[in-house]
Amino acid sequence: MIDKRVFDRYRVNFKCYVAFPEDVRIYEAQLLDLSLTGMRLVTEAPLSPGKIINFSFTSNPPVKGKARVAWCNQKGKEYMAGLEIIELSDRFREALQKVINDLTLQNLTDSYCR
Questions:
Q1: Complete domains list, the chain, with CATH
Q2: Cβ atoms 41, 56 nearer than 8 A
Q3: CA–CA dist 86, 101 (Å, integer)
Q4: Rounded to whole angstroms, what are the CA distances from 105 to 76, 102, 114?
Q5: How far apart are the C-alpha atoms of 54 and 26, rounded to whole Å?
Q6: Cα Rg for the chain, rounded, in angstroms?
Q7: Could you report the per-residue pLDDT of 31-55, keeping only the tens digit for each?
């Protein structure tokens, strides 16, 4: 299978929150990896492909926006899902870019020092 991603993904371990636009409940999640256009997370929120969700995660700076569930696997009560970011305000797009820049620099430093 060919990976069609344009942007690198970075492993992260951020606390994340997801919510459905039609629901007031907020679900906790664990963000596992991140790129400029998407992310992978684990949650107990009942996700399914095509579903639109609101998300936020606790990075420095924090990021929040809307995403579409691209794929989802359920194991017991947990769902692992790949999300495509579909909406970010300018403020949060800049915040995401800063997080990615920091991760890129950190990975370069780790590789260079080995």
A1: 10-112 (2.40.10.220)
A2: no
A3: 20
A4: 37, 5, 15
A5: 9
A6: 14
A7: 999 999 999 999 999 899 999 999 9
